[in-house]
Amino acid sequence: MLKILALIGASITMVLGLELPKNHIVETSWLEKNQNEKNLVIIDTREKVNYEKGHIKNAINYPKNEWNKGTTIEIPKLYNTPKQIEEMARKAGISKDSVVVFYSEGKEDTDFENAATALWNMWIYGFKNSVILNGGFEKWSSEKRVVAKELPNIKPSDFEIEEFVNDIASLNDVVNAIYDENIQIADARVAKFFRGEDDRKELLRHGRIPTAKLTPMLRHVKKENSYYTFISQDESKKILNNSGYGVELDKPLIVYCNTGQKAKGLWFIAKFNAGMQNVKVYDGSMVEYSRTNFPLETGEEF
User: Fold this and answer.
1) Beta-carbon neighbour count of residue 242 at 10 Å?
2) Is the pLDDT of residue 1 over 80?
3) Using the 8-state DSSP alphabet, how is residue 163 labeled?
4) Taking 70 as the threshold, does the pLDDT of residue 190 lie above it?
């Protein structure tokens, strides 16, 4: 039975004088108002070439590949190690008292996965005062807000990881979930991958993990003018649940895609915009799973 979840969008958390929405999404007006707060750190997750053409003032550039430097069992592009995160955070001037705003390009419906990947990397190592800028750089610049080209003068911090938040699912967790009706699996890719109709070369086999629900990440943004913004919390809940045929919002959920990027975008949506309590990312995703002998399904879901 689907539980009724309270809306969290209007709720806020106060962090060192800054009001942070509990859905971890801030508007351009919020960032402009708080841009010069001493504890605010802004991270641009676009490619370096775009950052150099112009960026939000004081932003430091960490493109998406900087957040996917971990490797295990020869599977690349996994989450960063503690040492890598500490080095990145220190260079960016992030301390335990900071509030971090991540932003992506915002021109495409998949762009926010880059900001979500960065936020997730910080989140799993216990840093929770992070938000994503709604609409990304495209919304910011289209509104004629200040764009800079000079590099920020950052004072390095002494950031240290103090805890590990286990929002990560292993291959064993995924296999166990296939046979446990109380643990759900969600596929963040589009339908052709779900049906196994793709020819992506890094996948040794094609299809979906058994029992997975088709829940594309890109369904949770909408186009406004030249940029994409998040849909409302009510809309995200309805799309995830799909009238009872999709995700049950009160049960644990494991999300995956091909390389783990869209899975982190869907993790962000499910955890914050839909308010789910137990959401984990299978970071190895189909690149890893396709290299095993565990079962796959193809074709339409029945």
Assistant:
1) 12
2) no
3) -
4) yes
**Three-state SS for 34?**
helix
Beta strand extents in the chain (DSSP E only): 12-15, 18-21, 25-26, 40-44, 55-56, 59-61, 70-72, 75-78, 99-103, 130-133, 147-148, 168-169, 184-187, 213-214, 221-224, 227-230, 253-256, 279-282
How many Cα atoms sit within 13 Å of 259 on the Cβ side? 17
Residues 134, 127: Cα–Cα separation, whole Å:
20
Cα–Cα distance for residue pair 281/295, rounded to 1 Å? 19
209: tokens are 């993990």
Average pLDDT of the residues in 185-202: 97
Q: Which residue has the tokens 């990145």?
A: 88
Closest-CA residue to 218 (of 189, 187, 247)? 189
DSSP state letters, 251-271: S-EEEE-SSSHHHHHHHHIII
The pLDDT of residue 19: 87
Report pLDDT digits (tens) over 29-56: 999 999 999 999 999 999 999 999 999 9
